[in-house]
Amino acid sequence: MNVGDPSVKRPVQVAVQQLRVPNVSDIDFAALRAGRLQRLQAAMRSQGVAICLFYNPANIRYATGTDMMSVWSASTLERHCLVPASGDPVLFEFRSAFHVAKRYLKDVRPEMSWQMAGPAGAEYSRDWAKMIKSVMAELGVAGEALAIDKLDPFGMLALQAEGIRIVDAGPTYVAAREVKIPQEIELCLINGTIGDAMLADFSAAIRPGVREYELLRVLSDTLLSLHGECVFTRLVASGKNTNPWLTEAHDKIVQPGDLVGVDVDSNGYEGYVIDISRTFLCGDHALPGQKEAYRIAYDCVNGMVDMIRPGMTYGDFSRLAPQLPEAYRANRYSMMAHQAGLEDEGPLMPYLYGNPKVPKALLDWEIKENSIYCLECYAGRDDAPYGVKLEEQVLVTPHGGLRLSTYPFEEKLL
Q1: What is the pTM of this model?
Q2: Does residue 111 surpass a pLDDT of 90?
Q3: What single string gives the DSSP state of each residue in 260-324?
């Protein structure tokens, strides 16, 4: 089904929250931490994985319930944890943060790092690998393969020198994190309301003369004021910066008649992702081409919301979802959808056109109930000085996609 046919108009969607948004005091955080670890260890046992080593802050948080300087930690090899398929995780934490981690974990030990050691990194990593081997023996998994999410060459070589076989932890943590437990869903509903507030304040701040980075500040200020954690991209663009998409905010001045696009891209309360996109008009009078691009993106995103169901494969979804008109395909977004939780998650859902080598395993991937998807569309012609980015974040229910955000679309562009 192609979108953009002027004779066929999808009615304007009224987003009404269909689930009760809980109060923070209603959430059982002990059950959240225990439930996530149970899912992870069940996935490990089902896949024959005896032990995982995690450096990714989202995986550490999922397994242990702890978080410490996650933005900084994401680009370093400092905090890490070992998670056996049964029993308690071992967290290797900053010494000065033990008092935080010990609120939730029994076994907290000093982290060992070589990342800032320069030429001494090889020696430090060898000591670390000996320690990892010793802890594996202590946990009863000596000689088993170690499933890792990320590591550098120093670490890899040091583990191999100790005779430790390394495998990829990706299939295990994807399987664990894909389906959300009830407490995660409650947190995502709360964060949907935070996303609504961010978009409302962002929209209200759009005026001639405001700069893109000032609008980004509004987004971040609202997030932080509502107990969110951080904005992890700077995707605010106006006017010609909206086509092609992925120009981040700088000092461009918004002018009358500009389209202003934003991707919220934030870690909200308790770290769960808020990933919603909207495009606004600065002023009251849209050009016909702006309305056309908006209608195409609007029909694509809402068509995907309407059709997503548990049990569908990615291949079926990609073939049946609304398709971009030919003139809009060259600048299309890199994917139709992706999953979300404590970070943007995969597997991503690919476009089939212009993408001839999609792996069969990806096409056969099945959409699951209680997973969360971010459904995306970018519409921008090659010859146009503007484009439209829209995105909805939905919980997959037996009856379809339930929107986590209720923020309306731009009536002036519809």
Answers
A1: 0.92
A2: yes
A3: EEEE--EE-GGG-EE--EEEEESSS---HHHHHHHHHHHHHHHHHHHH--TT-BHHHHHHHS-B-
For 273, the token pair is 């992702």
Q: Where in the chain is the domain with CATH 3.40.350.10?
A: 50-168
**CATH 3.90.230.10 region(s) of the chain?**
179-413
Task: Give just the sign of the alpha carbon dihedral 362, 367, 372, 375.
Answer: positive
Residue 97 neighbours by CB distance under 10 Å: 16
Distance between CA 41 and CA 336 in Å, rounded? Answer: 31
Q: Length of the chain, please?
A: 414
| pLDDT above 70 as % of the chain | 95
Task: List all residues 6 or more positions away from 322 whose beta carbon is below 8 Å from its beta carbon.
Answer: 1, 2, 3, 299, 300, 303, 304
How many C-beta atoms surround the C-beta of residue 376 within 10 A? 27
Cβ atoms within 10 Å of 368's Cβ, excluding its own: 14
Under 8 Å between Cβ of 371 and 364? no
Query: Which DSSP category does 232 fall into?
Result: -
**H helices of 75-211, where?**
98-101, 121-138, 153-161, 170-178, 182-205
State the architecture of 50-168 in CATH terms: 3-Layer(aba) Sandwich (3.40)
Q: Mind listing the pLDDT tens digit for each residue in 50-75?
A: 999 999 999 999 999 999 998 888 88
Is the peptide bond preceding residue 347 cis, with omega within 30 degrees of 0?
yes
CATH 3.90.230.10 fits 179-413, yes or no: yes
Residues 350-403 have pLDDT tens digits of: 999 877 789 999 999 999 999 999 999 999 999 999 999 999 999 999 988 999
Longest dimension (CA), the chain: 69
- pLDDT tens-digit readout, 148-165: 999 999 999 999 999 999
CB-CB contact of 394 with 373 (8 Å): yes
